[in-house]
Predict the 3D structure of the following.
Amino acid sequence: MNILIKSYKFFLFPSIFLMLLVNINIHAQTFEKVIGTSNDDVALDAIELEEGGFIVSCQTSSGDNFTYDFMIKLYKLQADGDILDSLYHYIDTKYKLRYINYLYQYDSNKLLLAGNCQNRISLDYQIYVAFTDLDFEFISDTIIGDSTQSYFIQDFLLNEYECLVGTGFNVEPGGLTDGIYMDYNPATKQYRQTIHTLPYKMGIIVELPQINAYHVQGLLEGNEIVQICRDDLSLDTIIYCSINSFSPGHSTNIPGTDKYLMGGRKSDPNNQYIDKISYRLMDIHGEILEEHLYGALDTNHFFALSEMDCRDSNYFYLGGTKNFEWFPPFLTPEPRWIFINKLHMDGSIIWQHYYKGELNYMPYKILASSDGGALILSHKYDWNSPYPNQRDIHILKVDSNGYYSGMVNVDEISGKPLQLLVYPNPTSTTVNIVCGFYTGLDFLLYDLSGKLLLNKKLNASQQSISIDHLPAGMYVYRIMQGEKLLESSRLVVQ
């Protein structure tokens, strides 16, 4: 799309603006989907099908969020987001399904779901595994693990031999630092586990076939890596990799390389009590090749939720939540934005976007898709709904530029989605500019005649600017990075 713009002082005519909205998304199907019931519903994992479309795995409560007693719900979506099929599944009534976080395509024509369940009498945790075929015909389920011990599996993967592998920790009083490493072969029904006592909870695992090992990092401490032998799950060595506080949340291999990514949170070097989004580029020997720290103080990356993914060695997706209170983590009555970033491996920004924000949204899963875009699973929480303790499923499919059909935050000059968050808009007294991962920016505000009214340097990841001296009306802002125009749009003052 070749549109020559010689001046940024005036708005594009509505017809041109509409043309930009229509033509920006010509290479990939995109959609926004909300699925809600009278129960608490949340989507936690997804896979892309070879023939197109997606399968999304969800957990739905028997009541509100606080019951922690879930059923499994699967949805099969077409490439345009329409629901083709769905499946409910209830587990054995002797157990509560606590989490069903992981979905895999198994043996080419089956689906494998994995999570944690809890005995209703003893309250001990065990592992729950279920199988269906791709047509949603239920095949089998099983509860595995040592019923005499209560271990919570924090992270799973399906290894190259199609064995389910996981790591977690003892949830019994006094046993939080007993780490467990397990694998389960669905073909032979063989279950193995080893236990090691370490000074931290074990949480995040990545498979490294090149050295016949797994790397496991602590849930709250990612400065030491436990290397586990794939053959017998024995502890091979402990790799000391950093003195800086890093809390890992999710790992992903980089296809075609001997490297992997570890996303999470890291202490700000200027204030050890403040955590920000962070990621590490690691090699198979536990060496940190790149480490980056980003974001506003209230932008969060959640532990063991899959807000990072990549399909090749050129880029990856990293996400989080903007505007976040930890307690209560999910049902806070405040606007929240889905914060998604597409980055090069060296940390340079391809794009970043803030989605939604009129209600409470939080992302749980980013799945990099074959068209260069991503599927984003989030919750949507409306505190004014008739069901105040319940979330709805929110799904975005964005293209390689981060655009989705129906998106309203679009740059009126480039036609691309806006990368910075400028709110509230309309406003009357102040405007907040959230820079996200960008630095070294200037905010310029013009009236419709092109007269410059404000020129402010943005020295923080979020900055508030007073505009109460301006008369009501329409204005144009530009955000500059040096001599480069990053984006431009309109601001309404009431």
Q: What stands out?
A: Residues 1-26 have pLDDT under 50 and may be disordered. The first helix runs from residue 14 to 23.
